[in-house]
Amino acid sequence: MSLTVSSNYIYEELDKLFPNAKCGLIYNNLFELLVSVVLSAQTTDVAVNKVTPTLFSAYPNTYSLAKAKVEDVKEIIKPIGLSNSKAKNIVALSKELVERFNGDIPKTILELESLPGVGHKTASVVMVEGYKIPAMPVDTHIFRIANRLGISRANDVVGVEKDLKNYFEESTWCHLHHLLIAFGRNICTAKSPKCDNCPFSNICINKEHIS
User: Could you tell me how far CA 7 lies from the centroid of its own chain?
Assistant: First the structure.
């Protein structure tokens, strides 16, 4: 790691830029959060938010979604893409929740990861957003930022997650997740990043290679 600034500095600067950073998914409870995060794979929060009102109106809880026909669910979520696999997963995970957890959403990463369609990132998002339990979900934005700022040189999400956890105080992880995503979407974008508006341009180890 080649950083010459503290993790507190990075956190505080991000918080100045995006003090109201929060999850982009619209949900009312843990069930809706979990399903929405599963649906958000390889699409945008905005796209998910367009289909979930209809989905949750038809299937408002784990019990109703567990009894749903996959084809009916697929039809509702078709606009977000990968509707076949996503429909199968959210119906299957609902059945598992009913059978193994009395319809409740488990509170550990390992239990969440045991559900169909729920990987480590999805489980971590539920921990951070749903339970306010510190975790470090790594998406494409966070992966990119960690490498550009020299927080991590890892070339996989497991390594980046480990480096981020070692660098930032655990007490910051929940809000930091939202801050980094906001920063990645608005300033440190994949293409044509707004380096002139970036408070870290002086420490960005990749600045001269970004276009």
Answer: 21
Contact 123, 112 (CB under 8 A): yes
Tell me whether residue 156 is one of the annotated catalytic residues: no
Residue-wise pLDDT for 36-80, tens only, equals 999 999 999 999 999 999 999 999 999 999 999 999 999 999 999
By residue range, what is the domain housing residue 38?
30-130
Q: Are residues 147 and 126 in the same domain?
A: no
* Active-site residue, 163 included: no
Q: What is the pTM of this model?
A: 0.92
- Round to whole Å and give the CA distance between 94 and 110: 17
Tell whether 182 and 163 lie within a shared domain. yes
Residues in the chain, total: 211
Of the residues 86, 95, 121, 163, only one is catalytic, namely 121
The active-site residue out of 139, 162, 165, 207 is 139
Angle between helix axes 140-148 and 173-186 (nearest 10 degrees) is: 90
